[in-house]
Amino acid sequence: MKQPASPSQSLPRGIRFAAFVCLVLSAFTGFFALRESMNLGRLSELKEAGDSQPAFVTSLLEAQISALEPMRESRALILGALSVACALSFVAAGRMLRPEGLPLERMRRMLGGAAISAALLRTIDGAQEAVVARRMAPAIIEAMKTLPELQGQAIEQFQAVPWLFSASTVGLTAFVAGTFALLGQYFRSERVRQAIIAQDGDFAEEED
Fold this sequence. Notes:
The protein has helices at 7-10, 13-40, 43-50, 55-68, 72-97, 104-145, 160-187, 190-200, 202-207. By secondary structure, the chain is mainly alpha-helical.
């Protein structure tokens, strides 16, 4: 005898795919935000560890720490909030895929709000990363000039480095924050809401 489908399995494929994308994106974004937040609390240790590294690595690490120190508290706050938003998004997306008896509508509302919050916080995080990238650019150029394989290269060849460094930071921010924003708006849409309510059945009636 065929087992009845769970609410999540009966959802349209588009909703389940969006929930899976949100699950993966939240996991990676939250992990890296948490790791960087923890590293902010041990900048002095990282600086000491860099002293034993090659001169190229040491100069880059010193430039990064110098750029991070003025914004350490605000950046730690943003990264901590981003980690929480990603955790909520991860839990809600996971429950959308495997509700385990929970009403999907509650998870939909949580997921929509958490994804929008993550988009906003990741945008601020990206702006701070862009500032760090701009401040590190001169150190990167000087460090590259010391590499044996780049000796004798024209100075003009290094001028694109700051632009490429900043562009990659902005591009990654736009991709991650934009994806979170699109997912948040998708799960807050009326079409998704009606599809979720139709699957909730008795849960929807109880909330009404």
